[in-house]
Design a protein that fits this description.
By secondary structure, this protein is of the alpha/beta class. The chain has two domains: about 5-215, P-loop containing nucleotide triphosphate hydrolases (Rossmann fold, 3-Layer(aba) Sandwich), CATH 3.40.50; about 220-300, Alpha-Beta Plaits (2-Layer Sandwich), CATH 3.30.70. About 30% of the residues lie in helices and about 30% in strands. The protein contains ten helices and 15 strands. α3 (about 95-100) runs antiparallel to α4 (about 110-120) and α4 runs antiparallel to α5 (about 135-145). The two termini are about 40 Å apart. The relative contact order is 0.13.
Length: about 325
């Protein structure tokens, strides 16, 4: 099944700043794809590249199999887009901007826009310049959803929405994907994304550091709390991809990817280990671990030794954290 969005080795500079650095990912149809990152990570630049609003310095971008820049108009005809700071004609009313926008779309846009405006309880006769930030966000969402696009691209779409509307809107994105439509969602609201995303990509300082189906990501990453027999003992070498580690007295808390049941049994049987507890971390905890990681993670492939072998970092003082 062809990808709806495909970015390959995309690089984009603004002056001397490399905003996007060799970014590659694919968005399959019928999914909610979430691009996660802190403010300034390069998420909005990726969106502008894929919509053909800016040209990459290197690499390729395509949507619906069409190259983004030469076919940007066709792509945007088939795409609903809500920018982080949507530009609206402030002198128009809620009703007038729907009527105006309908001129760019086939029949059916205006009735659908009116239904959405009613659902969002938008005041028909009010001028946009008098609306709150949350109301303006609802107008932008109604305009993007009204043509029932094949692809919906949302850059921080829930900013300014109240809790109930935010929840209803995100749930509607899941329903939308179930009909075969595709949703591309950029956000730093990780707890919200976890409820709706099928696939997540984590972006840090212009680079993609992870891209995976959410269920697979959470199944493969475990938080271990390892209690040692003595605070002077050292943590045995762990098998897997070490994302984060910190210590308090006799306990080590470790976030590791690819730690299987065999490894757990071997760790629990280790002479230096008193107890091992496993927990599936939240997406937010996984995100924070990737954000705090410096360089590539330690990749520890060997078996757990029969005697205590230190993780490749000096043990911190008792009571200190080590990230």
């Amino acid at each position: 099944m062809s990808a709806v969005i495909r970015l390959e080795n995309v690089i984009k500079h603004y002056g001397t700043v490399r905003a996007v650095d060799r970014v590659s990912f694919e968005v399959p149809p019928g999914t909610v794809f979430a691009l996660l990152g802190e403010n300034g990570a390069g998420k909005s630049t990726c969106i502008r590249v894929l919509l053909g609003l800016t040209e990459p310095d290197w690499g390729t971008s395509s949507v619906f199999g069409l190259q983004s820049v030469p076919h940007s108009l066709e792509i945007r005809r088939r795409t609903g887009y809500v920018a982080e700071r949507p530009t609206l004609y402030d002198w128009m009313t809620v009703e007038e901007i729907g009527w105006f926008t309908a001129g760019f779309y086939p029949d059916g846009f205006l009735p659908h826009y009116r239904r959405l405006a009613d659902e969002f309880t938008l005041p028909w006769r009010r001028k946009l310049k008098t609306l709150s930030k949350g109301m303006r966000a609802k107008v932008a969402l109604a305009l993007a959803l009204a043509p029932d696009p094949e692809l919906l691209v949302l850059d921080e779409p829930t900013s300014g929405l109240d809790v109930l509307v935010r929840r209803q809107f995100l749930e509607s994105m899941v329903d939308r994907a179930a009909t075969g439509k595709t949703v591309f969602l950029s956000s730093h609201q990780i707890h919200e994304v976890e409820r709706v995303a099928d696939v997540v990509a984590i972006m840090r300082a212009g680079e993609i550091v992870a891209v995976e189906r959410l269920e697979k990501l959470k199944a493969e990453i475990q938080e271990l709390t390892v209690t040692l027999v003595d605070f002077r003992a050292e943590l045995p070498l762990l098998r897997g991809e070490l994302l984060r580690q910190r210590r308090r007295a006799r306990q080590w808390q470790v976030l590791v990817r690819g730690f299987d049941e065999e490894s757990r049994a071997a760790l629990a049987a280790h002479t230096a280990v008193d107890d091992v507890e496993l927990r599936t971390p939240s997406l937010e905890e996984i995100f924070v671990a990737y954000m705090g990681r410096k360089g590539e993670p330690d990749r520890l492939e060997g078996p757990i030794a029969s005697d205590a072998v230190a993780v490749r970092a000096p043990a911190p003082e008792e009571g200190a954290d080590h990230d």
